[in-house]
Write a structure and sequence with these properties.
heterodimer; A: mainly beta; 7-stranded mixed sheet; 4-stranded antiparallel sheet; globular; B: mainly beta; 6-stranded mixed sheet
């Protein structure tokens, strides 16, 4: 079984530039999560999707962050414009249903200069 | 305020000995607890979990103990192996919470375990 796929693995941009991350969850997993992990911290949930619906985006900074999950499969997380404080690892996870075990992708390490 | 706390940033253990990683939580709504292991440049991988109706769960060399009254859980690895060297995250969830956050994981900051040969 293929795991959660994320791309790119690494991204370096200058502040004020836009950036996008892509996630392909495990086949059949209805629930998709985006997390941000700052250095020395644990992952923090940004948004959770149930199929194509964003059911919990309370922690997503909506002034600059946006996400979508068209057709309830792949998902894209966007930051526009990026700030220095956005430097972090962005993790995508999926599960068969809400509350079930979450499987994580390798993450995208973002560096904002 | 952190709801899940791992107060030891690092732990060093000799191969073959026991590793004990600790975790404390503050939210009494949490009813499901998990441990994830993370190697560099990889995502966290699930290791073991425990429901609040139990006080112990064992899987091979890994055992998780839960003390609800103390809001404390610990992960025991016996015997420790060099391949166990990784960052271990404790996470908690409120599965019985039927609000919008049901099933969301709250992570601690992690403990870096080093197992020396």
């Amino acid at each position: 079984e293929a795991g959660v796929v994320q791309s790119p693995r690494y991204k370096i941009i200058e502040k004020k530039q836009p950036v996008a991350f892509w996630c392909n969850p495990i086949s059949g997993h209805n629930t998709l999560y985006w997390y941000r992990q700052n250095l020395g911290q644990g992952p923090e949930l940004l948004i959770r999707y149930e199929n194509e619906e964003a059911v919990d985006d309370s922690q997503l900074p909506k002034d600059r962050f946006s996400a979508e999950r068209l057709k309830g499969v792949d998902s894209t997380l966007k930051i526009q414009p990026a700030e220095l404080g956005d430097s972090a690892v962005y993790l995508c996870a999926s599960s068969g249903r809400r509350g079930a075990q979450q499987f994580f992708g390798p993450g995208t390490r973002l560096t904002v200069l | 305020d952190q709801q899940v706390k791992q107060n030891s940033p690092s732990l060093s253990v000799q191969e073959g000995r026991i590793s004990i990683l600790n975790c404390d939580y503050t939210n009494s709504m949490f009813d499901y607890f998990l441990w994830y292991k993370k190697y560099p440049a990889e995502g966290p991988t699930f290791l073991i979990s425990i429901s609040s109706i139990k006080d112990k769960n064992e899987d091979g060399r890994f055992t998780v103990f839960l003390n609800k009254s103390a809001k404390h859980l610990s992960l025991h690895i016996v015997p420790s192996q060099p391949g166990d060297s990784a960052v271990y995250f404790c996470a908690a969830s409120a599965l019985m919470n039927y609000g919008g956050s049901q099933g969301n994981l709250i992570f601690g900051k992690g403990t870096k375990l080093s197992v020396k040969p």
